[in-house]
């Protein structure tokens, strides 16, 4: 069976975005980029909501062609290979997008690797993804999507990079009404970063 792994950056006060969905106030250091690539290497499928998909599809194809267009690479050219590989893996991985608004015309350079699933069919589609043998089903961003999946018992792991920022308002990582029992798998830090990585198993799948 495959595991659905949610990997997200969260502020110390529990927000995954600021007011209006602004993610620029979240502390995205080099460790964040390295962790994302590590997760992509372990993934067999990307599972995304429409907003995150559109953001990624608008950004990463250009980085695959020329990593120097990435602001992070402009600040530190030594991370060019990391960003190039991230862009390539984002492009190559099969992507399942849950959306009632996205159309094939919106998939652009990722048309050949993208499957659109309507919201009414999302839980059944994710159940099918979990039940097949293979690598991780990886969720980046897509808070509305994974919140629904967590409530339905369809998330297996939560990987939270807790950043040293207090946003005060915005999109909460865990809104009311989503119960889940978590087991801590690991905690880690990286020299030079003030973030803390927390990895949890969601105790919903029967053994």
From TrEMBL:
Gene Ontology biological-process annotations: riboflavin biosynthetic process
Protein name (database record): Dihydrofolate reductase
GO MF term list: 5-amino-6-(5-phosphoribosylamino)uracil reductase activity
Domain Bacterial bifunctional deaminase-reductase C-terminal, first and last residues per copy: 4-191
Highest taxon listed in the record's lineage: Bacteria
A Pfam family this chain is assigned to: RibD_C
Gene3D superfamilies, alphabetized: Dihydrofolate Reductase, subunit A (3.40.430.10)
Cited InterPro entries: DHFR-like_dom_sf, RibDG_C, Riboflavin_Biosynth_HTPR
